[in-house]
Amino acid sequence: MESCIKICRLCFNKCDINFEAIEEITINILDVLLIKINVVVSEEPVMCKNCAEIIQNSFEFKSTCLYTHNYIVPFVNEKENSKLDLREIYLCKNGHEDMEVSEADTVCGFCMNLLKSCPFLSLDNKDEDVTLVEMMINKCFPELLSLARIL
After folding, report:
1. Is 114 helix (H, G, I), strand (E, B) or coil?
2. CB 126: neighbour CB atoms within 10 A?
3. What distances in angstroms separate CA 119 from CA 9, 80, 114, 122, one per listed residue?
4. Which of 2, 78, 87, 135 is at a distance of 20 to 30 A from 115, taking alpha carbons?
């Protein structure tokens, strides 16, 4: 009996052995990422390991950003016309209101951690000519850029 060829529902490449079944949780994750796929065209919809990894990284990134957004909103409403200082929010979030964060410390707007401990950035490899924005795009958005190539 010949086995059925598996095709990734995201990139449409053949999946010989490296694939993952698209189950209800995966469909929910794709909905959060605003990716709509038709899974009923196949009895057993699958995605390749590469797409599964990109989807997982994208979901983690978006979840972190949504959590941060929801955490920051009350502070934005509280401040109204004054400038929002992410260092103050960082201290509140971590329960260290009495601790001080130096002017040199920068808080990541994606995850609300100090940049030196941000899971999305690595300052160890920072070149002198690379700006913070470029670092964030290179580190945070490759998943999204990879995702865009899939679609």
Report:
1. strand
2. 14
3. 29, 30, 10, 8
4. 78
